[in-house]
Amino acid sequence: MGFHSKPNIFVGHVKIKVENLERSLKYYQEVIGFKILEQTKTTAKLTTGGKTNVLSIEQPENVVPKQGKTTGLYHFALLLPHRSDLANIVNHFIENRIPIGSSDHLVSEALYLSDPDGNGIEIYVDRDPSVWDWNNGEVAMTVDPLNFKDLLSTGKQKQPWKGLPAGTVMGHIHLHVSELKKTEEFYIKGLGFEVVNRYGSQALFISTGKYHHHIGLNTWNGVGAPPSSVNSVGLKSFTLILPNEEARNHVIANLENIGSTVTIENDIFITLDPSGNRIQLEI
């Protein structure tokens, strides 16, 4: 539907930190359904279609467990191509007794689970945008119960599960942040997103191209929450895909105008949001 392609700005890749790479690779292959694209002793790049690196995992030196009440990853969200794909992975989870949460968000149907280190994962499918309810620039979203009976009626019967389908993309990322005022300025005035939903005074959902959200931002770990340590389990970075070099230069200028900085490390443009979440700006 074009929400995860140029000229939109969208999340193309997420990198997370884990305690034990071998344990995590087993989980992400056997439970979630990724394939390994590249691997070293401490890192792995994961793919669904064999070409694009959607998720990377890294075992930092002197790694420490996930720290509570900090900023960083709430969850990353994998968007499946078809509703039947979501039904198929539900059947896979049932067969392997994998505990999951679930929700009907009106705009999408979603499953929730955590990896062995507590990194949050959402796996979802969008409803057709024609049924999304927009009012005064905001899209209606909720947390209704998921209708599993109806969902499972769309699955492919008596076929072995083959992992995540090739068309799976990084649909969005949801972050814990320390506050929302400066955060909103950073993502809206700096990066060029639009607010598409305000969840009370504790969460914002933002996007480009009228998607329901490319990024979620919340203060549920507490206003003033500190960033986690560099070597702790959690978010390492995420990548925003920008339309072209001109657009990136425009974003860099906007970020600098609001007092943020952009650095270049190994030819990669990097900025930090007000809560210390690390963002790579790619084209």
From TrEMBL:
Keywords: Metal-binding
Signal sequence annotation: none
Domain VOC: 10-126, 169-283
Domain of life per record: Bacteria
Name of this protein: VOC family protein
Keyword Cytoplasm: no
Alphabetical list of Pfam families matching this protein: Glyoxalase (PF00903)
Cited InterPro entries: Glyas_Bleomycin-R_OHBP_Dase, Glyas_Fos-R_dOase_dom, Glyoxalase_1_CS, VOC_core
Organism of this sequence: Metabacillus herbersteinensis
Stored Gene3D superfamilies: 2,3-Dihydroxybiphenyl 1,2-Dioxygenase, domain 1
Upper lineage: Bacteria, Bacillati, Bacillota, Bacilli, Bacillales
